[in-house]
Structure formats: C-alpha cells, structure tokens
Amino acid sequence: MTPVRLNPPLARGTLRRRYKRFLADVVTAEGRAITMFCPNTGAMLGCSEPGSTVWFSASNNPTRKYRHTLEVVLTALGRVGVNTARANDLVAEALDAGGVAELTGYGTITREVRIPHENGRFDFLLSEPGRADCYVEVKSLTLGYPDGTGAFPDTESKRALRHVRALEARVKNGERAVLLYCVQHTGIRVATTADDIYPAYGEAVRSALDSGVEVLARSCRIERDEISLGDKIVVRA
Q1: Shared domain check, 169 and 92
Q2: Which domain, by its residues, includes 53?
Q3: What are residue 73's DSSP bridge partners?
Q4: Which CATH number does the domain housing residue 70 bear?
Q5: Residue pair 205/165 in contact by the 8 Å Cβ criterion
Q6: Nearest of 74, 14, 4, 12 to residue 46 by alpha carbon
Q7: Which residues are paired to 232 by β-bridges?
Q8: Packing angle between helix 158-172 and helix 199-211, nearest 10 degrees?
Q9: Does the predicted model carry a pTM greater than 0.90?
Q10: What is the predicted pLDDT for the residue at 14?
C-alpha cells in the first residue's frame, strides 16, 4: 500500500492523561511537559492509560493553539493510531493506488460528498460511467481485546448510527454502499460491532448487511515515519 509519510518522524513521549475529550498531557523524551491536541472523539478505551508510551507530531502553523498532536499510543496489545483523521487519508491513498481490491475500477474518487436527501456527508464517492455510484464511509477502529478482536464504536455515537442507516438507504436506492473500518490497532485480527457498548449500532449494521451494504476492514502498518493501510481483516457482524 502507498504509505502516508511522516516527516519528520513522530516524536516519543509518555502520556500523563487524556482529558476534556480533545486534550492530552505528555512528557517528552527530554522531560518537557506539553499539552497537546488529541484528535479523537471516542472514549479511547484501552489506549489512554497514564504512563503509556506515545508518539506525537508537531506543527509549524503559528496560529494553532496547541502545536503538537497525539498520534499513536503504544499498548500491551499493539500500536494504536488515535488520530481519527488519519483514517480517511490512509484510505484515500489506498484508493488512489488501487490498493483496496473491492473498490477498484472507478475513474473518479471524490472526498466528503453530501449524503443525498439528508444532512451530513459520506467520506468518499466512487463513480464510473456505466456503474452504479459507490458511497464509502470510513470508521477508525481502535478498541482491541486480548484475543485479537476489535470492536466499533468505543462509545455511543449517533453520527455513526446515522451513517450506517444512510448507507442502507443508498443500497435501497439502487446504488452501492460500503462501510470500511480502518483498523488503526496492530493487535486486531477480527473486526466486529461493540454490541455491549452501543447495541443500536450493531443492530443497524446487521440490518444494513441484510440489505446489501458491504462491510470491509483493513489493518494498518504503524511506524514513526509512515503509516499505511494493510491487509484485509475478517469482519464478524
């Protein structure tokens, strides 16, 4: 897969705490305490333990309030990419390179398209003359368990639920719809729905599958200097 290059490579530190949803306190390898942006709306279950080794990036944008961004947390189960915005970039690189076999053969790839007749947007629209339009919604999956199973979401998310139902509506309208889990956790081998956390989401995914929505999952290779979409992961609904 075509990687997303990280230049300079991510710096290393130690997590003190993640709080107020979008903030994290980190001590750098040099001993400096930094408050940084944490780009993750979820609960970050299993990947926000104080004392964890983390990797973070730095921005040269002088207008940013927090110059640094928390990117990866190293856990006992694997490396976890907690920057949810990376998921769409990883999938975009893979789609451009023809790296997702199920989603090849489309000449035009458009990002952030409006959901027809609804509020909100899908992450991608794939189109090709003579083929039905294909809508793709990407979700970053980071909740992992010791047996190698990963689950989404790690907290209740009405937005995620709405996206699944909107994908189902596209299939019923004669179009193609795909839910793609970008598994930013190197210890996960199987992807499923977190029914114990948000049962309504699991029910919606199973209904969508019955209607013809495709559910795919891909692993990630996570290094300090690059991240890329990896191999296919088994999906259990």
Answers
A1: yes
A2: 4-81
A3: 54, 80
A4: 2.40.50.580
A5: no
A6: 74
A7: 218
A8: 10
A9: yes
A10: 98
Q: Give the pLDDT score at 3.
A: 86
10 and 34 co-located in one domain: yes
Same domain (yes/no): 227, 121:
yes
Q: Are residues 142 and 227 in the same domain?
A: yes
What's the structural domain count of the chain? 2
Residues 117 and 213 in one domain: yes
Could you tell me which of 9, 3, 12, 49 has the C-alpha nearest to residue 31? 12
- Per-residue pLDDT, 1: 67
Place of tokens 């980071």: 142
Q: Is 138 exposed, middle or buried (0-12, 13-18, 19+ CB in 10 A)?
A: buried
DSSP 183-232: E-BTT--EEEE-TTT-HHHHHHHHHHHHHT-EEEEEEEEE-SSEEEEEEE
State the 10-residue block means of pLDDT for the chain, 237 residues long. Answer: 89 97 97 98 96 97 95 98 96 96 97 95 98 98 98 97 98 98 98 98 98 98 97 95
Instruction: For residue 168, give the amino acid letter.
Output: E
The two beta strands, 214-222 and 176-183, are parallel
